[in-house]
Design brief:
7-stranded parallel beta sheet, 13 strands, single chain, alpha/beta, 386 residues, 6-stranded parallel beta sheet
Length: 386
C-alpha cells in the first residue's frame, strides 16, 4: 500500500515498527479512527513487517521508510525527510521517545514553509522511562527531551500526572502540553463494549498481559502467586514476550510454580485468555497508561493492579473499578488477589462502563478536537467530521 500522494490537510504518523509494541498499536488504531472520520491518515514506518501490519485499515496509507528492510533509527532521518517532502501532511504525529526526537529534528531541518505542525505523543511515564526504558535509544532520547520536546507544537500525554511531569521536568510550555484522558485501545463501539456477554470463567485463573521486561514487575507477581498458592488453588497465565523470559522461567522453577504458571508468549488478541480469567492482575512498576487493564475491564474481568505511575489509578478512578496496591510489594499483591478471588465472579464492579471511555472512536474524536487549529480537514465526499 502506498502513501496515496500528497496529504496537505491530513495527518502522518511516525511509527517505529509493526512488531507488536503497545505504542505502535495505539498509533495504528488512532490512525484508523481518524481515517474513519474522513481525514486523510498515513503511517510512516521504519520496519513495515510484523503482526501489527494487519491492523492497518485499508483507508490508511503506509510509507515504508526501509523499502522492505528494517531501517535502523540512527539511519532514518534522510528517509523521513524525503517522505515528508513527498507527502506534505498538515500534521506529523510521533510516538515513543526516540521517534519523538527524530520527528523534532526532521521538522526543524525542513524549510519553514514546508514544515508540518508537530505533535508528540508521550505514551510512557517519562520520569521512570528515562532511566528504565528497555530500549537504549529511548533512554537517550529522554535525556535530550528537555531540549527537543519544547520545539513541538503540541505534546500530548495520556494522563494529567504525565502532563505535569512534561511541564515540570521536560520544559514543555504549559499551554502546549495536553492530557488526552483517553487512548485508542478498544476497536468496538461504546455500545458493543457495554453489551452483556457471558464468559466461561475458569476458577482461580489469573491473567497478566505485558512485555516480559523489568517495568512490568512480573518477578513480584510470581512471588505473590507463590504466596497465594499456599492458601488456595490458583493458576497464572502471562501473555507477552520479552528479554526477561529466561529469568522468569528460572524464578518459576525456583518457586516450584512449574505447573502453576504459564508464559504464553505474544498473542495479538489477549482476549482469548481474558474471556476465561477470574481475575486480571497488573504488577507494573510504571506505566504510560495501562492498556491491558482497559482490555480486561472491557471483558468484564475484575482487576487488581499496582498503583504504578502513571495510569492504573487514573483508569481505575482511585479504586472505583478495581483494587490498587503498592508497587513491588508481593505480600500486598497476594492479599489483594486472594481477597478478590474470594468474591463471586460478578461482584458489582464490572468495569465495562469505564472501559467504554477508551474506544478508538472516542480517542480519535478527542485527538482531532485538539488539532482543530492545525489545518486538518475532512476529505471531500467522505462521511465524518472533525
Amino acid at each position: 500500500m502506498g502513501a496515496g500522494g500528497k496529504i496537505p490537510h491530513g495527518i502522518c504518523f511516525l511509527v517505529r515498527a509493526f512488531s507488536g509494541g503497545g505504542a505502535q498499536r495505539d498509533a495504528i488504531l488512532l490512525a484508523n479512527g481518524i481515517a474513519d472520520t474522513g481525514v486523510a491518515a498515513t503511517i510512516m514506518v521504519l520496519d513495515a513487517q510484523g503482526p501489527l501490519r494487519s491492523l492497518v485499515a485499508p483507508a490508511v496509507g503506509i510509507v515504508d521508510l526501509g523499502r522492505g528492510r528494517k531501517l535502523k533509527m540512527a539511519l532514518a532521518l534522510p528517509a523521513i525527510l524525503s517522505a515528508l517532502s513527498k507527502t506534505r501532511p498538515a500534521v506529523l504525529v510521533a510516538s515513543e521517545a526516540s521517534g519523538n526526537a527524530l520527528a523534532v529534528i526532521a521538522t526543524r531541518l525542513l524549510p519553514r514553509s514546508r514544515r508540518p505542525r508537530l505533535v508528540l505523543r508521550e505514551v510512557a511515564s517519562p520520569m521512570q522511562a528515562r532511566t528504565n526504558d528497555p530500549y537504549v535509544q529511548n533512554r537517550l532520547a529522554y535525556r535530550l527531551a528537555p531540549w527537543l520536546y519544547p520545539r513541538a507544537d503540541l505534546v500530548v500525554a495520556l494522563t494529567e500526572p504525565v502532563r505535569g511531569d512534561l511541564v515540570k521536568h521536560f520544559r514543555v510550555p504549559r499551554q502546549r502540553a495536553v492530557a488526552l484522558g483517553t487512548n485508542a485501545v478498544l476497536t468496538q463501539s461504546r455500545e458493543q463494549v457495554l453489551a452483556a456477554t457471558t464468559r466461561a470463567v475458569e476458577p482461580g485463573l489469573l491473567v497478566a498481559v505485558g512485555r516480559l521486561s523489568q517495568e512490568k514487575g512480573f518477578a513480584t507477581l510470581l512471588e505473590a502467586v507463590a504466596l497465594v498458592r499456599k492458601r488456595r488453588p490458583v493458576r497464572l497465565v502471562i501473555v507477552g514476550e520479552g528479554p526477561d523470559r529466561a529469568g522468569l522461567e528460572a524464578q518459576i522453577k525456583a518457586l516450584h510454580l512449574d505447573t502453576t504458571v504459564e508464559l504464553a508468549g505474544f498473542h495479538s488478541d489477549p482476549g482469548v485468555f481474558l474471556e476465561r480469567a477470574q481475575l486480571f492482575v497488573s504488577s507494573s512498576r510504571y506505566e504510560g497508561l495501562g492498556n491491558a487493564i482497559i482490555e480486561a475491564l472491557s471483558h468484564g474481568v475484575p482487576v487488581v493492579s499496582t498503583d504504578a505511575p502513571y495510569g492504573p489509578r487514573e483508569i481505575l478512578q482511585d479504586g472505583r473499578w478495581g483494587d490498587l496496591v503498592p508497587v513491588d510489594d508481593a505480600a500486598a499483591l497476594a492479599d489483594a488477589i486472594e481477597a478478590r478471588l474470594a468474591h463471586a465472579a460478578d461482584d458489582g464492579r464490572n468495569g465495562k462502563e469505564r472501559a467504554a471511555d477508551f474506544t478508538v472512536e472516542n480517542a480519535a474524536a478527542t485527538f482531532l478536537d485538539i488539532l482543530k487549529d492545525f489545518g486538518v480537514k475532512r476529505l471531500p465526499g467522505n462521511v465524518g467530521a472533525i
